[in-house]
Amino acid sequence: MDISQSIVLGVVQGLGEFLPISSTAHLVLVPFFTGWDDPGLAFDVALHAGTLLAVLAYFWKDWLSIFKLAFVKDENDGKYGKNTLWLLILATIPGALAGYFLEDLASTVFRSPWVIVFTLSFFGLLLYLLDKYAKQNKGMRKVDLRSALIVGLAQAVAIIPGVSRSGATITAARALGFDRVSAARFSFLLSTPIIFGATMNQLPGLIEEGLDFPMMAGILVSAVSGYLAIKYLIRFVQSSSYKVFFYYRLALALAIVSFLFWR
Fold first, then answer.
1. Which pLDDT tens digits describe the chain residue by residue (263 residues)?
2. How far is residue 90's CA from residue 180's CA, in Å, rounded to a whole number?
């Protein structure tokens, strides 16, 4: 692919990874609409390295605090609990298992446009309803074993394009009563180990194929756009709901259906 394509896909990955709209679905749909070759799962994972840089750059102080709470006695923090690190690790396990056992399906069957139409619509509606009617009284210090397992299972479902990893985890957190900002933070922190694991899993293959300039540009762009997506989503949900993302997902699903019938 040329540099312009990799930049476009980098922007799509960076925004889609952290906004609840499904980065994987968009990385499938951009080539689908434009006629570009599907970059495939390996390129998707390469762009995930950029979003890994984004989440680490934004949350490095939070991660430092979480590690201190886990290993330093009598450490006090107003935002996170002492068991937050272990609960995040536990919540990562379902997603890691889903990625390991369903990788072939994720790169073939799950990338069907009709699958994406359904997942965009259904999981977008689920986000809208649970965000609208859920309680909003829990912060990150309220993360416990039950909530970690439920949000972790939601992340596992997000291996299917169109579900959205951030969308699924935010939806689950909202269903458990976490406020909008805490649900977003929970989702973003949980993304760190799963993105790291996916990147490391595909890294040998990427090195063997070679990291050319367009791919490196895509990674850089995904890092910048991902950082901005995190920053402004957290700021946005401090005063607004997630309903705008449901409307966007529904409009995109209808556009896919129209395109399929027109074509």
1. 788 988 999 999 999 999 999 988 888 888 888 888 766 666 777 788 899 999 999 999 999 999 988 888 655 556 888 889 999 999 999 988 887 777 677 666 667 888 999 999 999 999 999 999 987 788 888 899 999 999 999 999 988 889 999 999 999 999 999 999 999 999 999 999 988 887 887 777 666 766 778 788 889 999 999 999 999 999 999 999 999 999 999 999 999 999 888 87
2. 22
DSSP state of 158: T
Rg of the chain taking only CA atoms, in angstroms: 18
SS3 for 153? helix
Q: Are 173 and 152 in contact (CB under 8 A)?
A: no
Q: At a CB cut-off of 8 Å and minimum separation 6, what does 81 contact?
A: 69, 140, 141, 143
The number of residues making up the chain comes to 263
DSSP 51-85: HHHHHHHHHHHHHHHHHHHHHSTT---SSS-TTHH
Cα 235–chain centre separation: 18
The full set of domain ranges for the chain reads 3-262
Please list, residue by residue across 221-248, b when 16 or more beta carbons sit within 10 angstroms of its beta carbon and e when fewer do: bbbbbbbbbbeebbebbeeeebeebbee
User: Which residues does 96 contact at the CB level (< 8 Å), separation at least 6?
Assistant: 194, 197
88 contacts: CB under 8 Å, gap ≥ 6? 66, 148, 189, 190, 193
Question: Which residue type, as a one-letter code, is found at position 260?
Answer: L
Q: What are the φ and ψ backbone dihedral angles of 178, each rounded to 5 degrees?
A: -75, 145
